[in-house]
Amino acid sequence: MASNLSPAYAYTVVYVKDVTKSVKFYANAFGYDVRRLDNSRRWGELESGQTTLAFTPAKQHETDDLTGHVQVPRSTHERNQVEVCLDYADVDAAYKRAVENGAVGVSEPEEKEWGQKVGYVRDIDGIVVRMGSHVRS
User: Fold this and answer.
1) Is 3 inside any structural domain?
2) How far apart are CA 21 and CA 11, in angstroms?
């Protein structure tokens, strides 16, 4: 049983080069509705169900001194410590849509031994996005 001190998972923040471009990219490539893009263009949010997928600039003076600089992979042989994972009923169609809208295909969807169909793309900032079917336990 959850206590009053148990938090609800609110959102994930993705650090990007250009918030406006990333919000538009994710809306088009992955089928999200834009919830908010603030006037400063330094914060954007997408409707993603019970949580929010948010974007903010990788370089910003507000947090760099506080928490450090965002580390960006130097090549396609490196990746961020976090990947964005999205569930789809039709992974093949979702993968095709993502690539047609500017995502870079990494691995086309295939059935995995654990019962999930999974494909991988990179977004416009090189972040790995896993596109998979929902796995019920």
Assistant:
1) no
2) 19
